[in-house]
């Protein structure tokens, strides 16, 4: 129905259409591994390009091994990551060590590449408290399970960095489902108002467990939600490592220059189930959709791109695979060697000064545990 309001500035529907038209998907490398946006090519050396590929291959292996370790009962909570490597690893690759990462439960690869030892990631999966004892100098928080909560925390961490005069950013990740939560809006709004150096990533893998993104929101893109918060927003091809890197690098530059936060939506797909707790993706996704997305695979397109430049080979890839398997074996051994956690451990790490009623309980457990 045509609007009765002829003046476009007063036409609410037109205003929305104008916004929607602005949010086109940013891409540099197409599915064939060809550069389609030369002007936006990030400034990365050959060695850096190879390192990014190495991390993606390594993480695909880590995902496969984690799934099989979970099935053997040797890991606990695990949210598969295959398909999301470009979105996860190219964004982390654009960071500096002093930047803080506030991950969601699927974002364990980013915190590993930011410095969390692999065995601790395995301990986190097992629900062992040592998995959450982040080493000094590794600027990551524990993976958040409450959907969207990390967005509010990121606004706070970013504001803290700004107040301390640190030239660093806080980056966080949630999913398409997370972008429907109140915390999402509060986080981007607060960071925008205070020009906090935050980068808000929404990895839109099209499903929140079984709920398709179309049922989550009337918004055509997640990126356009930035408009209401008055901050820049961009939708990126999340299967394209170069586009993800360029978008995050750009957002980081603006953040540390005092220009405030950015919202980045990465269009991606998880090949596996939501978690290893038992959902069956064939009940909510079609094989056609799976195939369509597997054709966009980030490793396949980046491999082609690098091979064309003479920067990658089967031999190199096999070396990475072997290294990953070796590291995983070692890390599981180390995780197995962690002492069984005790109730008294949980109590003593929780309090600097234990309340008197808990002191009593502490003694009771201590006596039980020494039997
Ligand atoms: C506040 C809250 N509500 C519900 C849940 C249960 N839950 C766990 S994962 C999930 C779906 C999240 O989907 P999305 O944000 O798209 O992230 P993805 O798992 O696809 O990466 C839900 C509803 C939760 N953990 N926290
Ligand atoms: Mg999702």
From TrEMBL:
Residue ranges occupied by any Dehydrogenase E1 component domain in the UniProt entry: 53-343
Enzyme Commission number(s) of this protein: 1.2.4.1
SUPFAM superfamilies: Thiamin diphosphate-binding fold (THDP-binding)
Coiled coil: 314-341
Cofactor: thiamine diphosphate
Sample GO molecular function, one term: pyruvate dehydrogenase (acetyl-transferring) activity
Catalysis: reaction(s): N(6)-[(R)-lipoyl]-L-lysyl-[protein] + pyruvate + H(+) = N(6)-[(R)-S(8)-acetyldihydrolipoyl]-L-lysyl-[protein] + CO2
NCBIfam families reported for this sequence: PDH_E1_alph_x
Functional summary from the UniProt entry: The pyruvate dehydrogenase complex catalyzes the overall conversion of pyruvate to acetyl-CoA and CO(2). It contains multiple copies of three enzymatic components: pyruvate dehydrogenase (E1), dihydrolipoamide acetyltransferase (E2) and lipoamide dehydrogenase (E3).
The protein's name: Pyruvate dehydrogenase E1 component subunit alpha
Origin species: Bacillus salipaludis
Gene symbol of the encoding locus: pdhA
